[in-house]
């Protein structure tokens, strides 16, 4: 957790010197790795409890992302990374488990950036995370992070078309406490100020602290079942969840589409599962 905190400080110091939207910007070619190491059972158990995963069974689908996040932050706060890390918004994630991972298996982790893409609201970088056991690729993910800035690029990504996630039948209702961000940050290491307290969240334009996007994905997947039959997951973060809140988990009967909606039907998260 110390290395992640250091990366957050380094990112805060370096962000003012980086300018998003430079036409000549490129991502660093470096690939950061962590040697194979066992999963800490105490932190894993705490993570499982706050996200709703079963106490036994395979590693939660979202947990390798949490383990690799310090590497991701170290790369994104490095001098060669072109975007300021302050203000980066996690916009989507795709997770592909190649097989179930046992909590006792030591994981080797790797992270790298896979290019910049014009977005209607700025520039988006794709970050790739890989987890291996004994050299075998067992899990990987791709994530989009948006750096917002004015743009007139005609090639920028179009506004997504409306979908039917608002019509998915409700499955469960969850009451989220105001300290959820602090509690999740303690077990994940992601102590971004926007999640911790209303005062620090206001510094970044939020009226209250917001829930971690990765907590919302994890909680939905825990409700859907963390079974080995899941071949891929894609989730899009539509709107922040202001804490405290009451949210509704909704999913179709086949379990292929899911969403997290607010009290007034606002869609916070929309996802699909391939089995």
UniProtKB/TrEMBL annotation:
<dbReference type="InterPro" id="IPR029069">
    <property type="entry name" value="HotDog_dom_sf"/>
</dbReference>
<feature type="domain" description="MaoC-like">
    <location>
        <begin position="182"/>
        <end position="251"/>
    </location>
</feature>
<protein>
    <submittedName>
        <fullName>MaoC family dehydratase</fullName>
    </submittedName>
</protein>
<dbReference type="Pfam" id="PF01575">
    <property type="entry name" value="MaoC_dehydratas"/>
</dbReference>
<comment type="similarity">
    <text>Belongs to the enoyl-CoA hydratase/isomerase family.</text>
</comment>
<dbReference type="InterPro" id="IPR002539">
    <property type="entry name" value="MaoC-like_dom"/>
</dbReference>
């Amino acid at each position: 957790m110390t290395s992640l905190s250091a990366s957050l400080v380094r990112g805060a110091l370096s962000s003012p010197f980086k300018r998003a939207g430079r036409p000549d910007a490129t991502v660093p070619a470096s690939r950061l790795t962590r040697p194979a190491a066992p999963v800490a059972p105490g932190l894993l158990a705490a993570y499982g409890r706050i996200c709703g995963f079963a106490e036994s069974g395979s590693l939660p689908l979202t947990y390798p992302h949490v383990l690799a996040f310090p590497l991701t932050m170290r790369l994104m706060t490095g001098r060669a990374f072109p975007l300021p890390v302050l203000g980066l918004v996690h916009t989507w994630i795709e997770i592909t488990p190649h097989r179930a991972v046992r909590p006792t298996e030591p994981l080797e982790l790797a992270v790298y950036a896979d290019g910049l893409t014009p977005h209607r609201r700025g520039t988006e970088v794709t970050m790739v995370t890989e987890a291996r056991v004994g050299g075998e690729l067992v899990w990987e993910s791709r994530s989009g992070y948006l750096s917002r800035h004015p743009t007139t690029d005609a090639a920028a990504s179009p506004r997504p078309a409306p979908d039917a996630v608002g019509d998915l039948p409700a499955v469960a209702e969850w009451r989220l406490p105001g300290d959820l961000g602090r509690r999740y940050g303690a077990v994940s290491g992601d102590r971004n100020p926007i999640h911790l307290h209303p005062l620090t969240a206001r510094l970044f334009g939020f009226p209250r602290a917001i829930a971690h996007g990765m907590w919302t994905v994890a909680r939905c997947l825990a409700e859907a079942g963390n079974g080995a039959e899941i071949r891929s997951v894609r989730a899009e973060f539509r709107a922040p969840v202001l804490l405290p809140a009451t949210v509704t988990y909704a999913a179709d009967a086949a379990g292929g589409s899911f969403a997290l909606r607010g009290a007034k039907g606002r869609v916070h998260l929309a996802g699909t599962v391939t089995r």
